[in-house]
Amino acid sequence: MKKRNILVIGGGGREHAIVHKLSQSRRVGKIYALPGNAGIAALAECHPEIAAINLPAILMFVRSHPDIYMTVVAPDDPLSMGLVDRLDDMCCRVFGPKKKAAEIESSKVFAKNLMKKYGIPTAAYEVFDDYQAADRYLETCAYPTVIKADGLALGKGVIICPDMETAKAGLKNIMKDAAFGSAGSSVVIEEFLTGFEVSVLAFCDGKTVLPMASSQDHKRAFDGDRGPNTGGMGAFCPSDKYTPALAAKAYETIFLPTVAALNAEGREFKGVIYFGLMINGDDIRVLEYNARFGDPETQAVLPRLKNDLFEIFEACINGALDKITLEYVPDYSVCVVAASRGYPLAYEKGKVISLGNLASGVHLYHAGTIVKDNRLVTNGGRVFGVTALGPDMESARQKAYDNMKGISFEGMFFRTDIGLK
Ligand code: AMP
Ligand code: GLY
Questions:
Q1: The pTM of the whole model exceeds 0.90
Q2: 71 has which bridge partners?
Q3: Residue 119 lies inside a defined structural domain of this protein
Q4: What residue ranges line ligand 1, CB within 6 angstroms?
Q5: Residue with the nearest Cα to atom 2 of ligand 1?
Q6: How far does the centroid of ligand 2 lie from the alpha carbon of residue 231, in Å?
Q7: If you count Cβ atoms within 10 Å of the first and of the last residue's Cβ in the chain, which end, N or C, has fewer?
Q8: Residue 206: which domain range?
Q9: Cβ–Cβ contacts within 10 Å for residue 64, how many?
């Protein structure tokens, strides 16, 4: 069997989990990662100087490496910038959606309007591109309310507003002071939903949608869901609250209709659709779509997956996903993220990391790490994810936290309640 060389775009914990899984495939040869990180470097040839948003450098890299059989585009920014389209124009095999399909993540206005047009359940909402009109609306709407910047804002473009005062200040920050640049030139103002949140990542080949095991993220920085929203401080898989009956309902009322809606709009989706769901009783609504694997959810889901990830990517690209059945080890998994002091706001880099030995079967996924002067140092807000598996949630949790004890760097912090939800 011919081994294939793969390029993975990105350099976070999610990409380390993807690279690790690909490296286990009998069909994968060499792996490249742009930019990668210090952990990925043990499995792949990394190029820290080529950022995931540096499209010209990435295209040049691909042109000069004809041995690359497939490129996997994992992060949101290059997807929204059209990297998949550019690679497709060069006749490369790519795993990931084209720009027009990735808009389900990069434009909340597009995503909400799509859901409304095709009857996909979501929170009631209004769209504004005029600051004064939005400000007036805040005087009449019910509270709490939710304001969302239209574009990508590193997961920080959503404000939950308990009252009009907070809402008006938040709106001004997004629309008038342009805290997120042009991402905030339009906003969605929507109904506040209650219930529990579940993330369902689903492979999609443009026709078939194949949901992975459910997971739950922990978006706030501190224990007890306090502090600012982050990219995600930990995750577990599966979510027992997401019952087979709920999964069947989500599939019928949300997953299939979303793929059909995208096709009807001429935006065929190949890649991973991330469904962020809010569930209350048997009511299931879409909170958000992402056009990619979630992070840290991927660090909790992929270690349980038994299938060959390369074969799934191939099936997505070839439109043959209906031939695949996903299989998992029966264990629960818990991923705890270690972050740098200050994250998700300003944080320091370049702190020397010391790593202890990990118990067997525990995964240490690197995120913001780099080797400088022969030393492993921090290079981002989220630095590591530690994922452990166990026959029940509590043993997986214990194992993840026991192994976290071996890691240290100045200013390191992590939540102590991942998996208790
Ligand atoms: P999003 O980026 O749209 O997922 O929003 C980030 C987080 O804000 C979500 O994970 C929820 O915790 C919260 N959120 C977003 N929209 C709503 C809503 N309509 N009602 C309640 N919470 C929300
Ligand atoms: N963990 C949330 C995300 O990947 O967007």
A1: yes
A2: 7, 94
A3: no
A4: 123, 146, 148, 155, 158, 160, 190-193, 197, 219, 276, 287-288
A5: 155
A6: 6
A7: N
A8: 196-323
A9: 8
